[in-house]
């Protein structure tokens, strides 16, 4: 799969821009702050309907404009598909696929498969467990779209259960009466049911992605340490109900749900040592990169080859790691690379070159 | 902004569900242009609905008398009871013509986020109806979403010990549609609920 053309209207710093890409490596070169990342962020948005930089849509639309449009032509198996998204902050997005409007913009997901690595991904290693759960769940949905529904169901049940615990907590704290927890058992059952489905899928995913991660880290770091991932569950799929029963009193005292896959984490280790707190900046960076590369090679080995985006990666790596990363990805169907200094990108990845200046992108002949 | 009565009407209309300011304006000017007798009829219907419509004392469906049309009908079976969230769900099931039993309208679903628990719904009334022993099957037809499913589970837990058969509506693919157009959640559910031929 590759992106043949990207058109932006009123997105971030671009009033209007169109870029034609080719399969294979492409490098977007430009000074800091000229809008390189805006281009790949827009592609990421088409793939997942979310930005990797911000959680709300408003910053995506150029300031002063009321809406923005991302249009992107995707080639897969020799066929071209046009995906269009209109982003209207505060309202539902409108999506079209191959010129026909979609009932729900969510249906555009899957048209473009993309794995994006960006500087923000350092938080996969250093950040909260939530970042790592999101990494797993996003990859899960990319492999099996059905899990978008499972994840949404689980989150909804969790919200309802928390609201129930919270209202009982407030009834006791503020009004001094016993809260109504008569439906708690029901929410336990549903939480355990959806939680078990989600958790089983996550566990299976960790098993599948672990060898890819080990391999990717091995290649990027030239054999310095073995990357290990391990899923740390608050309860195994068949024990969620029991785990909830075990923490029942504490849950009521604190007014929130304390067991289930929303409290789990992915433990990252280099050899025997945890990455968080022990690994150097370069090692952490390489680990986060290896996690995204593992997503990429896993998806590639199973289904449609995704487009790979490396946003501002090479400046952070030493020469050896740069060359080994280049070797790893140079045969990808499409790699889009952004950088401030062209010399940072190894020769083998210097395919088509684009010069990015404020509001403009030009192909370098 | 318009003056006086027309703006008042626009404001009132735009408080209705599904009506935005633009639609409210269109409706208001339609009312202004329409025949006086038509509008008198509309306004009488609006007044009557608040004055005359009551809730059935048995099933809590909308009714004009003490009991609703379905509860008064002697031809309907007393051994099957179908639980729904809202009166409009009764209408939807009645359109199928498949069900000849009685109904019970809960008035919503368990929803802690909105402060709705069993006490805010007609669950106590349902239990006292069931304790008469006439019902042999309870059909749970609450919405197939998180809150509807939770309500169904809650009722099932309470009713099963009474020796009454509890059933739940199936969820799956819409009839007459193409498989490729089904969203992945519906299709996933349909896969889970597949049956042997």
TrEMBL record, chain A:
**Superkingdom classification of source:** Bacteria
Molecular function GO terms recorded:
ATP binding; single-stranded DNA binding
Residues reported to bind ATP = 30-37
Domain RecF/RecN/SMC N-terminal: residue ranges: 2-340
Which SUPFAM superfamilies does its entry note? Answer: P-loop containing nucleoside triphosphate hydrolases
Keywords of the record, alphabetical order, are: ATP-binding, Cytoplasm, DNA damage, DNA repair, DNA replication, DNA-binding, Nucleotide-binding, SOS response
- Primary place of residence? cytoplasm
Name the GO cellular-component terms.
cytoplasm
Signal peptide limits: none
As for what it does, the entry says: The RecF protein is involved in DNA metabolism; it is required for DNA replication and normal SOS inducibility. RecF binds preferentially to single-stranded, linear DNA. It also seems to bind ATP.
Give the family per the record: Belongs to the RecF family.
Q: Which HAMAP family match?
A: RecF
* Name assigned to this protein: DNA replication and repair protein RecF
The lineage is: Bacteria, Bacillati, Actinomycetota, Actinomycetes, Micromonosporales
From TrEMBL, chain B:
Organism lineage reads as:
Bacteria, Bacillati, Actinomycetota, Actinomycetes, Micromonosporales
A GO molecular function term, named singly, is: DNA binding
Q: Which PANTHER family match?
A: RECOMBINATION PROTEIN RECR
Q: What does this protein do?
A: May play a role in DNA repair. It seems to be involved in an RecBC-independent recombinational process of DNA repair. It may act with RecF and RecO.
GO BP terms? DNA recombination; DNA repair
Pfam families, A to Z: RecR_C, RecR_HhH, RecR_ZnF, Toprim_4
The segment(s) forming the Toprim domain are 79-174
Ranges annotated as C4-type zinc finger: 56-71
Family, according to the entry, reads as follows: Belongs to the RecR family.
Listed A to Z, the keywords are:
DNA damage, DNA recombination, DNA repair, Metal-binding, Zinc, Zinc-finger
Recorded protein name is Recombination protein RecR
Highest taxon in the source lineage: Bacteria
